Amino acid sequence: MKKTINIFIAIFIIILLTTGCGENKNKESKENTTYTFSYNNKNLVLGEEFKKEEIGEPLDYSEVASCAFEGLDKTYTYEHFELTTFPDGEKDKIYSIYFLDNEITTNEGIKIGDTKEDLISKYGDNYQQEDNLYAYKIDKTSLKFIIEDNSIISIEYSYDA
Amino acid sequence: MKYTKSILIIIIFILLFCLLNQLVKPKYSETLREGSLTREYYKETKNHEVIFLGDCEVYANFSPMVLYEEAGITSYVRGNSQQLINQSYYILKETLKYEIPKVVVFNVNSMREDENQKNEAYNRLILDDMKWSQEKINLINTSMTSEENFLSYIFPILRYHSRFSKLTSEDFTYLFKNKTNSFNGFLVNKNIKPYTSFPTKKTLANYTFKSENYEYLQKITDLCKENNIKLILIKAPSLYPYWYDEYEEQIKDFALKNNINYYNLLDMKDLIGLDYQTDTYDGGLHLNLYGATKLSKYFANILKENYNLTDYRNNKEVSNIYNQKLKDYNKLIKEVNL
To answer: Please, what is the angle between helix B316-335 and helix B64-71, to 10°?
Structure first.
């Protein structure tokens, strides 16, 4: 009977140890390589803390609260792009950068209005395509292009938080 | 004697295990009130002629107390935060085990979701206090994120053991009892945060609802038909996330093909009298008490005029229950700053 109790307790401990609690999933250390967008000579790194003072005041600012949890997704609108952050503890980290016009380019030189050939010449053909969305991925970051009639109509950097 | 002692040890171990499970599980009483919505349904008298189904756009926007006060309609909101359409389907299936309403009102916002639940926390809000049933098992299986496992829904301690060091007085106060936070599934929020702006309306690569969402919308439609329930589709008047014209067309097509009435209440916001400077608690995502009251009054009249519902204000048994609820509701909204 003592043996049975020991087995019983052992099974419980094994289950406890082998079952992930999932609470610290967002606290994983970030990998080194991500997509980066430069503005005003500052690098905006996806998944890194956003320091507004480094790139200046936005033209507009909005907040979106989650349904039940604390913390806000914050969106800063600059002249040519919109930057959204997500809360991670005390910090606001960069979640996405969305181009608003063709006045800015990616660090590799692609802008809205360029062709699919321009895109492939800069980024290669190692993209994931879904309908007219072309996504290049590095680790937890994506650079997404939407192409219509061979013209890029949307550019967005995003982070898989 | 030896065996008796061993059995006693096992029983004590099991009891202790159950107690620890209950202790570490979030109580959803004083904090994260949204997690109490699923369990509160079980305590209700099951005589509702209308069931609202959907995400936060139903539990924040529709007040069954106002529907009763305005038109004598008995209703319940079976909505949860980020409740996806597959989850709404199983919640509806579960509801039909308890009662068969005359009307189900489904908010179509979740049709635009293109992925399964990404945030485990929302699954927990819906499922932690759901009664065990085949529907719950199916719901867990269709909802789990890749990091979750089924066993942790059976034994919460496997998921929440790290809460041992974060226990608060709420965990002890509500160890063996629960606090009721909603009025028939409606969560009162009196805060005011005016609309200012939202992020840019982004260009999407694909506006077509994913096929799995259509499958579940069809399942909800079929389930209602099988049970002789009138299904109504609505889009609640939340300004964000954006409801694209392409979404609107797809819902209209579906409604037409399936002979379902569809009301885009976002388009009716002026008729309803909504003022997003005073009627929202988070800048236009959800309505506050004042906005929900306006919307519920407006929708009560749509239901009253078109769906042959009973005016229970003349039914002594039901009106006794609802008048008491109304008394509590009015007291709460006058006295408590929620």
So the answer is: 130
CA distances from A91 to A6, A63, B335 (A): 46, 15, 36
- Cα distances (Å, whole numbers) of residue B164 to B7, B128, B157, B296: 28, 17, 9, 42
Q: What's the CA gap between B57 and B108, in Å, rounded?
A: 10
Question: What is the per-residue pLDDT across B145-159, written as a single tens digit (0 to 9) for each?
Answer: 988 999 999 999 999
Interface predicted TM-score (ipTM): 0.75
| For residue B25, pLDDT beyond 60 | yes
> Which domain CATH number covers B187?
3.40.50.1110
Q: Do B200 and A69 touch (CB under 8 A)?
A: no
Chain A residues with beta carbon closer than 8 angstroms to that of B2: 1
**Binary contact (B162, A9; C-beta < 8 A):** no
Query: What is the pLDDT of chain A when averaged over all its residues?
Result: 84
For residues A59 and A80, give the distance between their C-alpha atoms in angstroms, rounded to a whole number: 10
Please give the C-alpha separations between residue B214 and each of B88, B112, B219, B220, in angstroms, as whole numbers.
Answer: 13, 10, 8, 10
Residue A63 near residue A74, CB atoms below 8 Å: yes
**Percent of residues in chain B assigned helix, strand, coil, to nearest 5:** 50, 10, 40
Evaluate if residue A24 carries a pLDDT over 60.
no
Q: When comparing pLDDT for B206 and B336, which is higher?
A: B206
| Spans of all domains in chain A | 33-159
Measured CA angle at B271 (ends B266, B277), to 5 deg: 70
Rounded distance between C-alpha atoms, residue B270 and residue B315, angstroms: 34
- Cα angle A133, A138, A143 (rounded to 5 degrees) comes to 35
A62:B35 CB<8 A: no
Interval B279-300 mean pLDDT: 96
Task: Classify burial at B242, counting beta carbons within 10 Å of its beta carbon; exposed 0-12, middle 13-18, buried 19 or more.
Answer: middle
Residue among B32, B148, B191, B202 with most chain A CBs within 10 A, to mutate: B202
pLDDT in tens, A69-116: 667 889 999 999 999 999 888 899 999 999 999 999 999 999 999 999
pLDDT, average across residues B201-208: 94
* CATH no., domain A33-159: 2.60.460
- Give residue B152's region: left, alpha or beta (phi > 0; psi -120 to 50): alpha
User: How many structural domains comprise chain B?
Assistant: 1
The boundaries of the domain holding residue B91 are: 2-335
Is there a contact between B158 and A21 if contact means CB atoms under 8 Å apart?
Answer: yes
Asked if B81 is an interface residue toward chain A (Cβ–Cβ < 8 A), one would say: yes
